[in-house]
Amino acid sequence: MGTQLHEIDFTDLSNNSLDLFTISNVNIGSKWLWIHFSAVYIVTIFICYQLYNEYKYISSERIAYFYSSKPQPHQFTILVRGIPVSVCSSVSESVETFFTEFHPTTYLSHMVVHRTSKLRNLINEAKTLSKRLLHLQSEPSQHTYRHIGLFGQRVDLVDHYGKKLVDIEQSVRLEQSNVSLAEETRAAFVSFKSRYGAAIAFHLPQSTNPTQWVTEQAPEPDDVYWPFFSSSFMRTWISKLVVIVACILLTILFLIPVVVVQGLTNLSQLETWLPFLKSILTITFFGQVITGYLPNLILQLFLKIVPPIMEFLSSIQGYISHSDIEKSACKKVLWFTIWNIFFATVFSGSVLSKVSIFLEPKNIPAKLAVAVPAQASFFIAYVVTSGWTSISSELFRIIPLIFSLVTRCCKNTDELEVPSLPYHRDIPKILFFGLLGITYFFLAPLILPFLLAYLCLAYIIFSNQFINVYMPKYETAGKFWPIVHNSMIFSLVLMHAIAIGIFTLKKLSIASTLLFPLPVLTLLFNAYCRKRFLPIFIAYPAEVLIKKDKEEASVPAMAEFYDKLVTAYRDPALMPIQYSVNSESLNRPLMSSADF
Amino acid sequence: MGTQLHEIDFTDLSNNSLDLFTISNVNIGSKWLWIHFSAVYIVTIFICYQLYNEYKYISSERIAYFYSSKPQPHQFTILVRGIPVSVCSSVSESVETFFTEFHPTTYLSHMVVHRTSKLRNLINEAKTLSKRLLHLQSEPSQHTYRHIGLFGQRVDLVDHYGKKLVDIEQSVRLEQSNVSLAEETRAAFVSFKSRYGAAIAFHLPQSTNPTQWVTEQAPEPDDVYWPFFSSSFMRTWISKLVVIVACILLTILFLIPVVVVQGLTNLSQLETWLPFLKSILTITFFGQVITGYLPNLILQLFLKIVPPIMEFLSSIQGYISHSDIEKSACKKVLWFTIWNIFFATVFSGSVLSKVSIFLEPKNIPAKLAVAVPAQASFFIAYVVTSGWTSISSELFRIIPLIFSLVTRCCKNTDELEVPSLPYHRDIPKILFFGLLGITYFFLAPLILPFLLAYLCLAYIIFSNQFINVYMPKYETAGKFWPIVHNSMIFSLVLMHAIAIGIFTLKKLSIASTLLFPLPVLTLLFNAYCRKRFLPIFIAYPAEVLIKKDKEEASVPAMAEFYDKLVTAYRDPALMPIQYSVNSESLNRPLMSSADF
């Protein structure tokens, strides 16, 4: 069940003009192929050189950013999971005992994580109610009355909502005191007096049982993903495994429902469903456009829901921060895109036959060499239809606009939240165009001007969006770069596999033999980069931490910062709430910590 | 170029009696196969349960050993490589500056590593000479005179050697002072005041450039492998890559020379070379034995040189201690054995055809299912011929005996060094019999009594050898167990692959489908064990280190220990030597630190 359905029309329409510029016009054994061969070498070396420089630049920027940053709670804090509890002590006591014993000089405080899903629902309810109340109060002329029940008396809505809000606040307070006593998870944020102290606790294995006292770096306080907080090692591990399996299944089987829906939209089916279109569909041009574009449109719509699905899967995988969830979702969407757009288009046939290709690694280059060049014109069209349009729609943000208009009508609020860029939606998209450029540049160079136009557009539009539209929800500190790097390396190796296949196909076996070292060298280059740069993206080195700690040792503001640090990782659901009395300061306590 | 040559005779001889008990007698689609099926499940679960218990036991023993150990230099020391040096400072100054700045409270001292290969040769020369001198002096009646040169005068040998020794010692001292000034490598042993301090420096990335200040745990001082001391990150990395490639090539291509030599030993060839054997060879029995065993003997002799080769390869891979070299060689020999005895026997045909089997992972079970049961009788014979004989020869240590007799005759020394067990030779051997047991127990259960006999023998003999013969050169502290664990897991998964193939071959596709979860579950079990136990085998956790440090904080003997620690990692080649004057204390300074 490939996506051949929708691409046939593309290639039919464009074959005549575009195929002039593809490698299929080069004769078997032609000397011209050596130009392609040298192009493969030169471009690989050039890209690797650029990747190296960029990795170096970004890692130095990352260090520079750290040096210039103010003291931030997440630099001083780690998250500890799998806290063992003895019979007669609480989680909090257990943490206190452990860290005062083993990290006496650096340990500052801790904050045990609670299960607050119930509480969070109550608070959301209170929040909505108070908003409605505020809206009613702000327009005193519109004080409305309503019948309660079928035969009930008329009541003042402001009065009614006010009472209800007080009730909810009461139960929130009750629940809060319950939660803080009973529903402790076996996880806690532990803060230290220095960055170096936190780093020591993070890097060193703490316990003789490596599944207990598992440490990881804490995210920024506003970045913590409170809802799903799996604390035990086994649960995190199992949910991770389940999510990986779910992801692989989704990635492999995604096209089945898509193709089924696409199959329902053939001409005759459309005519039966929407008879009024009959007259239009009989015109050949419209018929072609609809059968050509409708399946593509359906695919695009299905693809739109993938980033949220992947984000959801990542969120139940046990990550503790929005940033980690987005990073993980970004990887998932990237592999999904490469599989479901590149490989699904290139290899027609059933899902199983596609999977089986990868079970015979020896034949991959040969199969790629046959299938990839055949789809050149489809992908050129794809750059235009999907790339150009998506980047332009990014500028106008039509869907968020409609969505915001609709919600503003319904909810009667004037609130405007500044959006943040969904990295897991946009990075894979751009990287996929990078993959197309790298794999097709020597097969069908005509794709390059289209891609260049896309990239220029993307650069201008995203620059604008970053400056004027989006506000980052968290500081990435360059942590997404390794994904970009790995994706480029994968593109290069894929391109080498295709090139080896092509040269074998064109009976230029010397060239294909001479190409063999290239993927090996590229992978070695990648291995070197992993050793040279990746550690900086995982954790800051001791040198940097100690220098930064020393710099601030004498700053008087630090005492104040430590005071803040102690409560920085408090669950926003456990903060005292006050909506009913003072309606002026509405939302403040929640907004300051949870929404931004 | 398989080893079919030599196994044909085995199977011919034994087919009649042994094949009665193999799975090939079970009819296609027979109900009896379900017994094999359940045996596969039960044995897998049993082995995994045992592996879990054993891993748990050994890791707890490892911790207990650490708690009970006296303070040892390697617990307080790390090795730092890739030390950056500025223009105007030496390596030693650079280390001093770095660690006093970043680890001021815990840093104790350091010892820069020097290039001493030249010096080591000189010292060896002096050592040999002094031994000879001692031998001559101890038997004054045998004072011999010798002509120097063709027409030279007669000289007193004691006098002659004495003078020569003084000369060499002179140049050693000169060289020592040179070396300690000039030939510094960019590596140093850095000692700390506490185990925890050393662990912090080991675990935390030190520098903004992860290829500089690369830290690793120091080995025991006597375990340090001084000769090959690659200090820069790039050199270590490249030599590692080269060694891996060399190992793979050796493993894959090893059989080519073996088969060529084996081919030279067919009957007619032997008769031309050794005509006096002609009369014996014409007797059918002798002919059969020779053509059957001679190729096998040649294979065995070739196999004997593999552990030293692998040890050599590991030693140039950049490991810093004999124990690491042996551990790495142990893994190499294990894979070599599995490839060159198991797979080479099972899959006949050229090397390339064997490699190509692994390029089509889908077909591996089917091919295994056909080939593995056919070799059952060969492997039963192998257990007897190779296993039983090798373990008995271990008891008598014939080769070391002959070797020691020969050297004693030549060298005239009465010295007896206590040997240490070459783990990299014996562990792979035993593990390979484990692999045979696991893969053949349901194909040809007749192998089990033979294996049992082997294992009982091995247990008794090795117990004896450990108590009475060998002396460990270093404390392994259970570090070899993960190799055993991984090898067992590999054997299980291999057995599952064979079982799936067999059930497909016997047209019992439900059984083969039902087996699919088993390898997945086994690998998950392994992944869990890696998380649960492996970290303990890499480094001791903070909890243990801090407790141990605290225990000893008040012990007065620690001051003395610190004094020793400062000089513990001195290169033995840089120690002052004195052979010529005081012949009583010969060898002492060297023996105490370098030989044991």
UniProtKB/TrEMBL annotation, chains A, B:
Domain called CSC1/OSCA1-like 7TM region: residue spans: 240-503
Residues annotated as domain CSC1/OSCA1-like cytosolic: 75-227
Keyword Transmembrane: yes
Places the protein is found: Membrane
Pfam families for the chain: PHM7_cyt, RSN1_7TM, RSN1_TM
GO cellular component, one term: membrane
CSC1/OSCA1-like N-terminal transmembrane domain boundaries: 15-54
Listed transmembrane segments: 32-52, 241-261, 273-294, 333-352, 430-462, 483-503, 509-529
UniProt GO molecular function: calcium-activated cation channel activity
InterPro entries in UniProt: Csc1-like (IPR045122), CSC1/OSCA1-like_7TM (IPR003864), CSC1/OSCA1-like_cyt (IPR027815), CSC1/OSCA1-like_N (IPR032880)
Keywords, in A-Z order: Calcium, Ion channel, Ion transport, Membrane, Transmembrane, Transmembrane helix, Transport
Keyword Calcium: yes
Membrane topology, as annotated: Multi-pass membrane protein
Family as reported in the entry's similarity comment: Belongs to the CSC1 (TC 1.A.17) family.
Protein name: CSC1/OSCA1-like 7TM region domain-containing protein
